[in-house]
Amino acid sequence: MANNEETSKKVATAAIKMALSDRDEENLLKAAYKEQKMKVAAVDFGGNFNSSVKTMIERAIVAAKREGVIKETHTEQGAVAGATREALIQINPKAIGFNVGGKIGVAREGDHISVAVFFAIGLLHLNEMAIGLGHRAVT
Length: 139
Known about the structure:
50% of the residues lie in helices and 32% in strands. Helix 3 (49-66) packs antiparallel against helix 4. It has a single domain, classed as Hut operon regulatory protein HutP (Hut operon positive regulatory protein HutP, 3-Layer(aba) Sandwich), CATH 3.40.1510. The longest helix is centred in the middle third of the chain and has 22 residues, at 74-95. It has helices at residues 4-20, 23-35, 49-66, 74-95; strands at residues 39-48, 99-109, 112-123, 126-137. The chain is of the alpha+beta class. Strands 1-2-3-4 form a 4-stranded antiparallel β-sheet, with helices on both faces.
């Protein structure tokens, strides 16, 4: 297995790719990452940023459990929740007070879990694009 820095980078890249993917790409990525022994999940999201942070974190956890990325333990659910919150904090300055729409990607290999959020932020067609990334290690 690669060293921790290489694994962290690989998992972060996978989470970002999942967050950027459309449905067809998502299914292809899932198959490709499965061959590499990496577990991935993704979920779409849209709504008011301020009132939806809790829902976004919950959706990331549910998607990760559904796809077998994490087990139903406090430690693993907490890792996804923490990484998702970290990713959302990174886009908070741009998103506060606006609607967002996009996707949350989750990836895991071994002890490394990354969550990426990719959102269009704004009003009508005047959108700002933003990516946030969080990482946790679980044992």
